[in-house]
Amino acid sequence: MDSSLSIVEAKEAAGTMASRFWGQGDSESEEEEEEVESEQGSDSDDDGGRGDAGRSSGGNRYLKNQEDDSDESDTGHRVIRSLRDKRNEEMRSIVDQMRNAMKINDWVSLQESFEKLNKHLEKVVRVNESTEVPKMYIKALVLLEDFLAEALANKEAKKKMSSSNAKALNAMKQKLKKNNKQYEEQIQKCRDHPESFEDEAADDKDMDDDDDDDADESDAEIEDPDKIAMSESEEERDEDDDDKEGWEQKRSKKDKLMDKQFLKDPSEITWDIVDKKLKEIVASRGKKGTGRIERVEQLTFLTRVAKTPAQKLEILFHVISAQFDVNPSLLGHMPVNVWKKCVNNMLLVLDILQQYPNIVVDTSFEPDEKETQKGADYNGTIHVVGELVAFLERLDSEFLKTLQCTDPYTKDYVQRLREEPLFLVVAQNVQDYLERVGNLKAAAKVALRRVELVYYKPQEVYDAMRKLAEQPEDSLDDDDAEAGDEHQAIDDNRGPSPFIVIPEVVPRKPTFPESGRTLMDGLMSLIYKYGDERTKARAMLCDIYHHAISDEFSVARDLLLMSHLQDGVQLMDISSQILFNRVMAQLGLCAFRAGLINEAHGCLTELYSTGRVKELLAQGVQQSRYHEKTPEQERLERRRQMPYHMHINLELLEATHLICAMLIEVPNMAASTYDKRRPMSRTFRRLLEVSERQTFVGPPENVRDHVMAATRALNKGDHQKAFSVINSLEIWKLLRNRDHVLEMLKLKIKEEALRTYLFSYSSCYESLSLNQLTTMFDLSEQHAHSIVSKMMMHEELHASWDQPTKCIVFHSVDQTRLQGLLFQMADKLSVLVESNERAYEARTGGTLEGVPPPRRRGEGQDSSNMGKWQENFVSSQGRQGGGNRFGYSGRGGGSGQSGGHQRDRGNQGSRGGYGGGSRFQDGRGRNQSGSSARGGDGGARMVNLNRVGRV
Amino acid sequence: MAEHDLTALMAAQLDRHLVFPLLEFLQEQQLYSEPEILEAKIRLLSGTNMVDYAMDIHKSLHGTDDVPEDMVKRRSEVVSRLRSLEEAAAPLVAFLQNPQLVQELRPDKQYNIHMLQERYQIGPDQIEALYQYAKFQFECGNYSGAADYLYQYRALCTNSERSVSALWGKLAAEILMQNWDVALEELNRLKEIIDSKNFSSPLNQLQNRIWLMHWALFIFFNHENGRNGIIDLFFQDRYLNAIQTNAHHLLRYLAAAVVVNKRRRNMLKELIKVIQQEQHSYKDPITEFLECLYVNYDFDGAQQKLMECEQVILNDPFLGKRIEEGNFVTVPLRDEFLENARLFIFETYCRIHRCIDISMLSQKLNMSYDEAELWIMNLVRSSKLDARIDSVSGTLIMTTNHVNVHEQIIESLKGLNMRTYMLAKEHRGASSSSSAGNSVRIAESTVLRRQGLV
């Protein structure tokens, strides 16, 4: 290696020297490249011919240089001619090499040849003095592409490859993909008109025949020239056909044989032959050496030669299930074109079923051997085994899977999404069929599938889909012309015309009612009548979702409450639970848009209480630092993900939740400065605490910052600033009735600002005129009056109106801090006494005489206080008891634990240095307790160890 | 005022015959044009056997003596059918009309059927014929006869389904005959059956409840104890749910009943909650009035709504029932409603005000100044209102009595001393001294001492 390198360098040096000598600076770099390249070529190739090529290229260098430089050399003319020929010839030889490599399936050498080819291309182009890429090259690319596709599809063979070969194959795949992009047009052209490319190739061949001799000779060492000629001619013939077909035919020799067998004479083919063949193919399923795609091809061919409609139907069912088999893994998805073919097959099935109503599809009936022999004119029912609904459901889930796997920001995704109507057509037709047959239970299942494709679409999106579906076929095909052509090609050039011709009776386009609501209603009533429990529950959820996005909060709420879905949701399967979560989120958004802050908060708070919204809505995987997921779990989770177009915007959701929490919590905090009333939204409180601990407050960046900034403003009663901060959020443009919502929000903020202000500063006033309040908070007199009255009525504000002067007169009944504490203490004492009494009763078994019956608990504020105190009590006990508590949290696993940890970390991080002392004590206390509880379970020990490490 | 008319909604849940009173009422009110109502009546009658009545209406509607052919035909049909049914039921009817024979019947159904079969050759066919005959009588408008027959049929019938329909028929007949006491009994009987019976589907049961509530309106607004009855019935969970699911318009009657009923003020809170929940699906001036007053504290709005309420009440067949006393025609419910509503407004107003201008108040209460002053004075005197009148400035001054904080604290601690003492004594008697009790006592005494300082 060293030596070769040094040679290169030396040569380079020589080259540059030479060029300098020649005084030609601009061709320098090119030369260098060439040199290196040729050097490499001779290094890596042990082929005899290569040495020659290397030599010749070396010669060329000089020749070319001469040509480039000037015409000073008198032999220039002759040289140019030879150069051109030589280049072309070299290229051809490389292509030939590639062909050979293909034949023996040698990807390593193929890859090498490909690289050589590319490098050569440059030269050829330059020599030919045109920008056009030689057709030969394009042809080679097409060839390669097809071969690659075949190799990739043939998984069995791939598995058998040696590791180096497989690696080369993969490398090739990527290179080719990248490379072919620039020549896309020409490749397409080549595929469309192979003959025009062929011509040139043939020409070249003729021309080359004589001076190709030596090149061929070098090949001859490897293969017999006759053989090459044969294979070449074969290939040429194949290329005349559709390319894809070409390779498929060539590959599956067995298929070809079968062709022959059936091609002999159509009249000779009998039902028995077809049936036998079918059984044979079906039996081959899963056996080694049978390609999945191959099977599909064979079966498809069989459908053409089927003798009776029933048989055709039977074979079609096999085709469909074979198509589902194409993709073996659970994670991957079915190739898109296979999916499309599958859809077509389904439609065909439906055509047959419609055309011959006496054919019945079911699974329960055990058909006899010759059932499908009964011809089209047979009177009476013919049973064919098959399950339309299962096929349909599989089709749907495959569609979903492709969307899950595709990157939503690519064109592919949009493309795929546009194929949704295709599925809807099938679903609609299947449902129609089932209804006609009277299998309403199955129809309900299909209806659910349809509902699940429609429910998340607001009217605008629905309209767009409808328009797309109703477009004439041509314009639809423009985008996927390739795919369309493919279908055509398959249908046209494949063997004899089918024996059983089924007209397209089933509509090929979905019909949609004007509004999504009507469609939903129609499907819903069917499902409610005939669906099973799960179908009904899911349909109900979809219905609620749809009502929620159409801004019908009250209807959605009533449906949810009346159906009692909330009670049973824990028992449902996970995807239904996800759907339920989505419904709750959407319901919250809907309530928010309608200005129902409390309801919205109620809907959303649960979603946000765990901090795992993404997971709950299946919109992305959340990495948890403390809870490693097993790969198995992760895979499961990934499979549950919602496709991107069904996502609920998380920022909007978070903003909605936080704003609701703010509107509720800010006045609540202002009202309860002394007694820490139970917070309405713990999440919000925690966020607020965190943000208050920040030393510097920067301008808000994300949603959370915005709301926190607004909260600070609202706390001071500055409603204008609060609103402007909220208003500056980007997400509002996602809302349909944006102005209306913002207007509502403004009003709400003003209201809450007024309330907060009154709570905070009422103790500073003796009286306050309504006029002043209205100007301060920019509210109408009536509105302000109503708000203040409400506060008075609910005894949140100790004041009353002075009607003649329109003033609020405050009663100075507010407790001082000491009094407030006294109240708390009194409550706690009474709890203590009560528990004493209870303890006594428990011991003696009798009641105390002469003691008044214990005070009834649960009188408004009172009870909450008590509850809180008890909480304290329990927690302090826990601290004393130590280990127990940790044990619990450790065993609680997952969410609980991580939540606790996070909080601890938060405290630690933000409290900074001076808080250290107390933390240390705290930590020590816990350590002690931990050691006293040594011997507890593993969870406890682990947590304690953590703590030791951190303190 | 027609937009607040509920007749169309109500009629769907009522028996044909029960709709008549509503139409009669509408005719009196002249909310709709006369021919329209007559037309409706004819259509209504076409489903019944009261052909003669339909003919009369037709004559008055078109001002002719001619009667359409089909009516005449129908009349003869009805008559012939009546004959045949009468014949079929004759043996049993004859038996039942003889009081001596009836006395032979015992409470035991099986025995009765057996006895009838044995001695009088009256079998199930005759009993069935009795039911048909009674039904036919009802459809002909002979309610008292129908009621009698149905009563007797129920004593004999064994089919529970049939028995329930007979009960419905009896209830309708009693309502139409305005025997409110009997009707109320039947109503309760029916309610029990509906609540206890196993229905094929919950929807069915719901529908039955809704029917029951609608039919009950006739009774509740006529029977003297009906106002309690309606609140009792409608506020039962199942019935309230039924209202919220499928019969929102019944909220009007519930609201009116609650406002009028002084003793059931405690239901107001619940009612308002329901009204708020259902405000998107049903609202009328009465519910809006309550909403204005108790949700928004918008007194002007409440005032406004109250005026509309009056119209609604007058035009409602149940609420606007008239009573003629001599030359006066009064609508008792309207008066009560207005009086109570006024009191509601006033009460709420007083609660959040310290000082009110009486002239303004009189305006709000739709009274003259003197009237209002007198009214307030009476309230103050009967110690319903804790206020004084400042007659110089013409204002009403409320006395606010907030409980002193100290008193509150002392109040809350009063019992503890005694209880702890008892506990400690018991405990000491049992074993050693109770440290907990002592500590509480100590804490308490410090609290009390501190209060002295505050």
TrEMBL record, chain A:
Q: Which GO terms describe its molecular function?
A: RNA binding; translation initiation factor activity; translation initiation factor binding
> Where is the PCI domain positioned along the sequence?
644-815
Any Gene Ontology CC annotation: eukaryotic 43S preinitiation complex
Keywords (A to Z) from UniProt: Cytoplasm, Initiation factor, Phosphoprotein, Protein biosynthesis
Q: Where in the cell is it found?
A: Cytoplasm
Q: Does the keyword Glycoprotein apply?
A: no
Q: What is its main location?
A: cytoplasm
Basic and acidic residues bias spans? 74-87, 181-196, 484-494
Whether Oxidoreductase counts among this entry's keywords is no
Q: Where is this region: Disordered?
A: 1-87, 177-252, 471-497, 841-951
Renumbered to this chain, the Gly residues biased-composition regions fall at: 879-899, 909-918
One family from Pfam that matches here is: PCI
Among Gene3D superfamilies, the record links this protein to: Winged helix-like DNA-binding domain superfamily/Winged helix DNA-binding domain
Renumbered to this chain, the Acidic residues biased-composition regions fall at 27-46, 197-224, 232-245, 471-483
What GO terms in the biological process aspect are recorded for it?
A: formation of cytoplasmic translation initiation complex
Fetch the PROSITE patterns from UniProt.
PCI
Q: What does this protein do?
A: Component of the eukaryotic translation initiation factor 3 (eIF-3) complex, which is involved in protein synthesis of a specialized repertoire of mRNAs and, together with other initiation factors, stimulates binding of mRNA and methionyl-tRNAi to the 40S ribosome. The eIF-3 complex specifically targets and initiates translation of a subset of mRNAs involved in cell proliferation. Component of the eukaryotic translation initiation factor 3 (eIF-3) complex, which is required for several steps in the initiation of protein synthesis. The eIF-3 complex associates with the 40S ribosome and facilitates the recruitment of eIF-1, eIF-1A, eIF-2:GTP:methionyl-tRNAi and eIF-5 to form the 43S pre-initiation complex (43S PIC). The eIF-3 complex stimulates mRNA recruitment to the 43S PIC and scanning of the mRNA for AUG recognition.
Q: Which family does it belong to?
A: Belongs to the eIF-3 subunit C family.
Q: How does it assemble?
A: Component of the eukaryotic translation initiation factor 3 (eIF-3) complex.
Q: Spell out the protein name for this chain.
A: Eukaryotic translation initiation factor 3 subunit C
- State the organism named in the record: Miscanthus lutarioriparius
TrEMBL record, chain B:
Asked whether the keyword Disulfide bond is assigned, the reply is no
Q: Which SUPFAM superfamilies match?
A: TPR-like, Winged helix' DNA-binding domain
Domain PCI residues, every copy:
219-403
Q: Which Pfam families match?
A: eIF3_N, PCI
Q: Give the location in the cell.
A: Cytoplasm
Q: Which keywords fit this entry according to its UniProt record?
A: Cytoplasm, Initiation factor, Protein biosynthesis
A single MF term (Gene Ontology) = translation initiation factor activity
Q: Does the keyword S-adenosyl-L-methionine belong to this entry?
A: no
According to its UniProt entry, one GO biological process term is: formation of cytoplasmic translation initiation complex
Q: What is its main location?
A: cytoplasm
InterPro entries per UniProt: eIF3e, eIF3e_N, PCI_dom, TPR-like_helical_dom_sf, WH_DNA-bd_sf
Which superkingdom, per the lineage?
Eukaryota
Record's GO cellular component, any one? eukaryotic translation initiation factor 3 complex, eIF3e
Q: What does this protein do?
A: Component of the eukaryotic translation initiation factor 3 (eIF-3) complex, which is involved in protein synthesis of a specialized repertoire of mRNAs and, together with other initiation factors, stimulates binding of mRNA and methionyl-tRNAi to the 40S ribosome. The eIF-3 complex specifically targets and initiates translation of a subset of mRNAs involved in cell proliferation.
Q: How does it assemble?
A: Component of the eukaryotic translation initiation factor 3 (eIF-3) complex.
> What family does the entry list?
Belongs to the eIF-3 subunit E family.
Q: What is this protein called?
A: Eukaryotic translation initiation factor 3 subunit E
